[in-house]
Fold these 2 entries.
Entry 1:
Amino acid sequence: MFYHVKELQFNARVSKPDPAFASMLLEQFGGPNGELAAAMQYFTQAFAMRQPHPDKYDMLMDIATEEFSHLEIVGATIQMLLGPINGELKNAAEEAEIMQLLDGKAKKEDFIHSAMMNPQFFVLSGGGPTVTNSQGVPWSGSYVNANGDPTVDLRSNIAAESRAKIVYEYLMQFTTDPYVKETLSFLMTREVAHFQMFEAALETIQPNFPPGVLQGDPRFSNNYFNLSNGADARGPWNEGKSTGLGETWQYIEDPIKHVIESNGMADHQPQGTDRTMKSVEKKDKEMSKERSQHVKKAVPSGENQWCEYPQK
Amino acid sequence: MFYHVKELQFNARVSKPDPAFASMLLEQFGGPNGELAAAMQYFTQAFAMRQPHPDKYDMLMDIATEEFSHLEIVGATIQMLLGPINGELKNAAEEAEIMQLLDGKAKKEDFIHSAMMNPQFFVLSGGGPTVTNSQGVPWSGSYVNANGDPTVDLRSNIAAESRAKIVYEYLMQFTTDPYVKETLSFLMTREVAHFQMFEAALETIQPNFPPGVLQGDPRFSNNYFNLSNGADARGPWNEGKSTGLGETWQYIEDPIKHVIESNGMADHQPQGTDRTMKSVEKKDKEMSKERSQHVKKAVPSGENQWCEYPQK
Amino acid sequence: MFYHVKELQFNARVSKPDPAFASMLLEQFGGPNGELAAAMQYFTQAFAMRQPHPDKYDMLMDIATEEFSHLEIVGATIQMLLGPINGELKNAAEEAEIMQLLDGKAKKEDFIHSAMMNPQFFVLSGGGPTVTNSQGVPWSGSYVNANGDPTVDLRSNIAAESRAKIVYEYLMQFTTDPYVKETLSFLMTREVAHFQMFEAALETIQPNFPPGVLQGDPRFSNNYFNLSNGADARGPWNEGKSTGLGETWQYIEDPIKHVIESNGMADHQPQGTDRTMKSVEKKDKEMSKERSQHVKKAVPSGENQWCEYPQK
Amino acid sequence: MFYHVKELQFNARVSKPDPAFASMLLEQFGGPNGELAAAMQYFTQAFAMRQPHPDKYDMLMDIATEEFSHLEIVGATIQMLLGPINGELKNAAEEAEIMQLLDGKAKKEDFIHSAMMNPQFFVLSGGGPTVTNSQGVPWSGSYVNANGDPTVDLRSNIAAESRAKIVYEYLMQFTTDPYVKETLSFLMTREVAHFQMFEAALETIQPNFPPGVLQGDPRFSNNYFNLSNGADARGPWNEGKSTGLGETWQYIEDPIKHVIESNGMADHQPQGTDRTMKSVEKKDKEMSKERSQHVKKAVPSGENQWCEYPQK
Amino acid sequence: MFYHVKELQFNARVSKPDPAFASMLLEQFGGPNGELAAAMQYFTQAFAMRQPHPDKYDMLMDIATEEFSHLEIVGATIQMLLGPINGELKNAAEEAEIMQLLDGKAKKEDFIHSAMMNPQFFVLSGGGPTVTNSQGVPWSGSYVNANGDPTVDLRSNIAAESRAKIVYEYLMQFTTDPYVKETLSFLMTREVAHFQMFEAALETIQPNFPPGVLQGDPRFSNNYFNLSNGADARGPWNEGKSTGLGETWQYIEDPIKHVIESNGMADHQPQGTDRTMKSVEKKDKEMSKERSQHVKKAVPSGENQWCEYPQK
Amino acid sequence: MFYHVKELQFNARVSKPDPAFASMLLEQFGGPNGELAAAMQYFTQAFAMRQPHPDKYDMLMDIATEEFSHLEIVGATIQMLLGPINGELKNAAEEAEIMQLLDGKAKKEDFIHSAMMNPQFFVLSGGGPTVTNSQGVPWSGSYVNANGDPTVDLRSNIAAESRAKIVYEYLMQFTTDPYVKETLSFLMTREVAHFQMFEAALETIQPNFPPGVLQGDPRFSNNYFNLSNGADARGPWNEGKSTGLGETWQYIEDPIKHVIESNGMADHQPQGTDRTMKSVEKKDKEMSKERSQHVKKAVPSGENQWCEYPQK
């Protein structure tokens, strides 16, 4: 159950209206890396984690709720940046009041001009935020990644926080309003905080690589296919040991030749690895048993109740 | 700022898993008339109402927050209806465990069969909700109507509540689980409650018709164009007095002829109305002045702060 | 069956091209509250109403057809506002003819500059309308609300007309062309007319509240949850009698406490209402019987023919 | 201006309800190759053609209007195929009436089972059509191709009619209802008729190849890059004369080598063609002049009126 | 299997950055007629053609691969046109560095100003291309037409190439950079080449009209319905012989009257054609047999392997 | 420039058709975590990395090209799983051939039945893949994350590989075909390989945390807001040291109280950290300088050429 207090989590202010920046800021209201996307991602992931992983559930709901609170901060800032548009539009009988401003009154002209970056502020939302990105594209449920496995979902979240952070970093360069900068700095820094929370939570699950349960075929886990020819680069991603499995990278210099000669990789043999088909199979079975039992024990197969009153 | 308690607003329970119904219920999670759509609509409308209409703002945030709480109830119910899917999928090493159930074990087969209505529960979300409607279409920001005018927004909300109500009414016919029915009945009834709240709020704004500020041209407000020929019906929508303006409906029997003869309506004269171009112009100016001043007085044109600490 | 005459329903004219306004006007061509959305909504609703409600069917098809005619007026106006773009683009061999205009020829420059608000007019549609809103977002079938119940659909239409009206009201403030204003005024006023038609039609259905058939649980229909704390407002939406059911609003001051103490509302008892579980059940059954029989009588269960020739 | 008569263009009937086929048939109601897509495509193209090409405008509006009439036929057939669903849903108080049918009443069970292909018929539209394709994806304005040039638009239409035709051909194989087959056969055949109309109209424009105005660089118009290696095929698309320009195809056996040696095609010289940079430039200028003057003469640069009353 | 070389198929260069044109050019990167749409269309069509039509498969894969190579050229050009944006954004600590440029440094101002056409270059992509059209609408899988029949797919491709050609023709008018023009001219000309390849391939299939297998009902294939009244035009699309079937067009002057009198076309008799229901039925059967056998022979019904190593 | 060989990277085979699994497998063809999404993400990111980070560019293009090759493998497998559908549909004249199979021929019935999971295979694509996910939702350009900073993009890729891996893990449980399992195992394992490549590449950039350039405000980087009340959990995400910055987590037990008392966090002071506003500012400036110079040096501000011939 959610609850709302009218105080914002951060004391958002603006020095003066700036509709052009309001338009850019929509990117964090209804854009793919914005606050609604973050809030809905953690909220949606939380359902499948509720019964088997109550600690992760608590963390996801803490952060999801904070992201909803950030969504409110972003919306409030956009609203204040739009300034008098809503009121001006109510003056509907004055013949093209808004348009007349364009003739001779320089300051207002700039205001209108900058607002034109997003015509929907005028003709659709009447001077309020829209659930879109900075180009007017409506928010989509497909922005949400929730795959029912904490070793995957937490990584999705680490990446999502990275993207949200960089978008705020970019946005801060397009305003000189110290109040707005302050708010953006708060929001950006919170992404840095959340990033570390998700990283720490991921570390509490062991093993967490590869993500999910299955280990992967030892014949194919350490090949590097040199598929972009010319100006080839070598680095720890295609030479030396691999990061997660500690296998030795096998660099396939001429992939077309290799694929044809290996009968489409079917005859390719594992190299540079200690893992075998057998060891993988054993590990797969162990992990399957452990992970499925963990979930099955926590989720009743018959009658189910979401929570007790009061929640302990 | 939002806050979350782990207790649901309603004590959601299920008697046993039913993934087919979980799939249908997605319509109210991520569908166009679902809880996310309602929550985001009232939340988004609230921004423009904050400063000029603090009472409407309070109501919108109360109801938006309740809708977020309903979204949680719907998600929790879907999760419980999906039952053991997440756990079964973790048993990944068992050769097609889930598929083998199809041979001979009737009860499980039904389970799987019904789950197949929505393959994404298996291959994408891993046994959790998706931010989509019952057919898998992702939620869209375009579901949200927020037009910056309370006489419009409140009507959008009355209609939205009507649609949400009927979808719950339909859904209730596809489950025999008494716990689930109980939850759906709660949710459906709340839409009835919200409907009346929005209706009452609309009545406090006078005049509220026509929506917005401008009155409309008296030449065109009471014509009925009979554009679908054959089996014509007459009723209070095209004879007698009109509901809002109290004008006498003018039935245009043969619209093509009338349009041509009136030079594309340009020569059409007002009939059956007391309103004149002059009276309309006067009313337009009065309303414009009143409504724009109301907003302008409340919204500062320079520095602005969203809220005080503590909020009074 | 549809038929077209080349005369527009309204004599649309423009004083001179204005591509910036053409771009804004797209909001009513392919936007969520535009003419295509209205036409398709009433047209789609009409199918389910055809056999059980022939009078509503007639009205919906009359208005749907008028909205298609309005769509044509809007498209024609956009086309005229785009003026010479299509012809200029045909002059393709002249080295950047359009671009060269930017150097020194002030009037043309303005033209081009304003057209840049919507680059698709140049590089995609070649100087004609696109089936998008003012930001280029393609029209979506999800804009259409049709839920198979006249007490819901007519309310969706009242809201849709309200939104369409306000968008025209906003648009009129961004043109000074008297011809264009005249056309927009006609279109805006027609929304006011349609609003009243739908309202009158809704009144002919009794009872029409709650929308649909089921009455709602008397325990939950008159509670107001005070979920947004601080600066709370009271008004007819949370005190006194409710508008539709005439119950007394029950204001739940501290919803978290109340939910926990009422075992997630499960132990909550009805208050401030004469309706009981029993009376509701009775009404539900009566309404179910009446409404289902009405439809079933009109819709053949075997062979079916849409219409007779000629239609009577 | 549109007009509607209640008679369908074709006498659509069904022998009995078949909701599974109703679901498939949605492909032609709200799918990318369906009747709404066709109607909106020709209607949208018509705007830019109105003043410079009144004969093409007439044809496009004739066919667009027919496609709207087909949309109505498809919708009517879907409605009849859905049969009693709308009425059954009104019987809302009967405890899971629809679900209970599943136990023991074989015929009804089949009905319900087949309806489950599209859950939205039950929980969203209440037994009526939706503006989606057969999978529930909402219709999109991006289905419409209108590029402001008849040599392009007419080709888009020929292709659109081809796709619409094949979809009807496929659909006809999934019904055994003779009435429905008859209707589908009518609709399919009309696509064949329209195909030929567009083809004939394209022929009246000379030259119509290449589409648009510019002729294309003679160095690049007759090369065939053999970019998919192994099992290469030769045919009139890469040997002999090209269809439109009558140039001799130049087969580039080893494109990587050729690109590198020709400095990224920059040093490639024309071969197998009589066209030269000079002849192309001349033709480009002639065509530009002719085509742009044709349009500019027809489209006034100042005041403009869409049509006269009455239209001649 | 794909392979990449770092050389572009065409030596793409720019004279200087031009972010406004970069924004327009996105239309051919992620727009409905752009290179990704073309590449994915031919690639997707190729799968169904692989076994029954290996020669068409080879052609489709040759051209699809070329379109992917063009996508790379377009992306590279956009990147170079965006110039220093990515680097400037990295200078994040300098207080509004980018914004400060707006004061007094004219040249940079223009740069920024023109970049503002697409705010996502700044706040989302950080100075790189986005998978959207020129208005920011994300690329959609619905742009791809692949219907499993070469007589349909090849026509879709001819139309697609026509649209791609005209968009390049339009784009060339908005740049004066000779390097960019050169690249666009190459890309535009390649569309002209591909058009002719698809046309030639279509000709190798006989008969190829009507598209697909079924011939169409002789009663409905040559009627022209005069559904847009006033200013009617006659031409080879409604008088004389039809292009594909060589039937005589039947002009239905008054379609409403005709439809009513013919009982919804049910009593309409074939005229102006030699085809009969019988001859059509015969042709349908022959074609069905021939076409289905051709495919069935090539596609194994049991075990299947996509290719041999090495491919012959 | 891309090049294609007809051999698949992996020798894909199927034992027999299975259209139900073909439908599920679409999730990896045109779904949000599928091969097209991966290929386009790395390909799009590569543009901005080309000049400043040639080694990362090489890696991204190697992997992007492999993902395109995987897209081909997935498409080929879907095509083989669809088996004879395309051929059956060509037998169009046989009265409902496909439907008749439903009566009495058990094996074929199963085939048809399972195919019905995705009606578009029959009525749209004619027995070939569609560019959609398993529910028919078209692929969207919004699936692609490319933000112009390697410390962000590589993290997006690590998460994308995790999701792709788990979807394959899930999919493998819904087929018993050993050939198909083998192919899926290859594809799943390659995601594990790519994950490690991206991880290794990220490590070569130092510092890589926080992602981007700016360090974040020391007042807000180590607070944990306990916003979901009841059943609170403690763990390394809200106690002890944070993972990236090594600060001590500050647990805010009662966030509402804290926010109000700290004047909306404006008066909140840093605790548990050595970082100061000053040290952050210094680091921000250093990093800004270093990172922007790195990029600016590599990207010419005037004339630019994408590559040399031959590429070194």
Entry 2:
Amino acid sequence: MSIEPVAGIEPPYYAVVFTSVQRATLDGYEETAARMPALVREVPGFLGYESARTPGGLGITVGYFRDEEAIAAWQRNGEHQAAQRRGRAEWYENYSVHVAKVERSYSFERG
Amino acid sequence: MSIEPVAGIEPPYYAVVFTSVQRATLDGYEETAARMPALVREVPGFLGYESARTPGGLGITVGYFRDEEAIAAWQRNGEHQAAQRRGRAEWYENYSVHVAKVERSYSFERG
């Protein structure tokens, strides 16, 4: 899990917002989730990600990509596809995905 | 805090991704944060929001808006501006904001 907000990327780039509610039983989830950062970092055009989850509540992961081709490459990854199938079959009560083109960004860092 | 992912909005619309790391001392934060949902719901073109925070870690809030004018109206809100100033002065170690135009979205709901 990244602890720092992703900042300083020059627009345009893409944000993929994945919001989910998990089920109570999560057999195998942690191992699979732990694999994803290493996998996505291999994708050309992957720029970073951020993740947060309120205990017992909503989880939000935002992946940043240079362009649509980078998003498509991540979607084609076989291990990612298997994780998605298992997520629908076992782990998620519901989820939403929003694919968006970032037009501007700014950040604050305590001096 | 919304517990359900926001889904079913017809693109195009905008997502404002606000990612933050809080400081240890948060005097007055909860009261101010609790005010924001009621305020933003008054903004014409506000479509919904999602929020998650890993305890001791990253917080991510995503606000969805119909268009740039709706985002601008929210930025002009005086109480929101005061909250932002206080956030920079007192509550946040760092944060990033990404303003993005959603091109497509999809969702999953357990049957």
